[in-house]
Amino acid sequence: MDNTPQPQESLAEYVKRIRTSLSLSQNDLAMKAGIHLQSLGKIERGMTTKLNSKSQRGLAHALQVPSEYLDAVVRGVSIGATDVLKFCPHCWIPGTTPEEIWLSPRSKFCFLCGTALRNKCAKCNEPITSLKFRFCPYCGFPYKPTKDFV
């Protein structure tokens, strides 16, 4: 299943497409997302074109898509299939943006320490879609290894 937003796809079309591909009813999705059924109905009918952060997080979790996908659909921008988010598990500081050179398609290793760059969760192997938080949104595993205390 391709859960990437399609060019020119509205929020209504995107949410409905992903919901139906997951075989969820509107009621099931609303409950999983923690939003009112009426709110979901308005979203899918195109009456709601913006999402507050709580609704966006809830829908992203329930639809099993990165929150950034919903944000891109709301803003009407595309997500490039070649855009890969990579970081150095040793040099990256949680909560900061990754170094620009790490994002180059040709970059394979950190220019500071030589460590292999990571673009997937070490535990569940899902692609990293955001470094806003320090944990994988799919499995909760930390992106950066914890330091061993002696």
Structure description:
There is one protein chain. This protein has 150 residues and is mostly helical. Helices cover 31% and strands 0% of the residues. Helix 2 packs across helix 3 (37-44), helix 2 packs across helix 4 (53-63) and helix 4 packs across helix 5. The chain is elongated, with a radius of gyration of 17 Å. The N and C termini lie far apart (46 Å). The mean pLDDT is 84.
Helical segment tally?
5
Q: Which structural class do the helices and strands define?
A: mainly alpha
- Describe the largest sheet: none
Q: Unreliable segments (pLDDT under 50, ≥5 consecutive)? A: none
Overall shape? elongated
Taken as a percent bin, the fraction of beta residues is under 5%
Overall pLDDT confidence = 84
The first-to-last residue Cα distance is 46 Å
Order of helices and strands: HHHHH
* Helix-residue proportion: 25-40%
* Count of distinct strands: 0
Radius of gyration: 17 Å
Helix-strand blueprint:
Blueprint: H1 11-21, H2 26-33, H3 37-44, H4 53-63, H5 67-75
Write a concise synopsis of the structure shown.
The chain has 150 residues and is mostly helical. It has helices spanning 11-21, 26-33, 37-44, 53-63, 67-75. It has 5 helices and no strands.
